Amino acid sequence: MSEETNQENKKPNTAPAVNKPLVDELDVNGIKQGKYFAHGRLLSAATRQMPVVEFSDEALVMHPPEQPFDDNLPEMAKIEVDDRGVLLDDAGKPKKVSGARYQNKSIWWFGERKPGTLKHYAVWFDDSGKPHKLSIQDQPITTDVVYKLRNRTHDGELSKFPDLVSE
Length: 167
Known about the structure:
Structural class: alpha+beta
Radius of gyration: 25 Å
Helix content: 10-25%
Order of helices and strands: HHEEEEEEEEEHE
Strand content: 25-35%
Oligomer: single chain
Number of strands: 10
Largest sheet: 6 strands, antiparallel
Number of helices: 3
């Protein structure tokens, strides 16, 4: 048998790779292929340098491309807040809704989230430092709503909206 014939008759190795980088296991060569089915999961990879994304019912999970596939639960992001309860960004600084104000006070991302979502409530602080949530029709609003309202103003002052009230 010739070498070419022998190569053609070889069956692909379907066993999971041990300690092989995930991009090598998936044979990622660029965005042309994009979607992969491995380890019983739908994965997507754009390039060999970008994280491999897993689509699950609960979330999008990002796997490091240079490491072997890990079936363990991914590390969950930790919500960190300052002493006022304001959400901290990746650099450890309090997150403010840029350009938005209520009664001329800055609006901040509160550490508390709306139940069942990843959306954070918006608060402003009075002169004594007490946080106040903003509400519409007795429902506290989240920062995404604040951004939408801010974009409807010329100066970012939200107290001019009559339906918006503070606790």
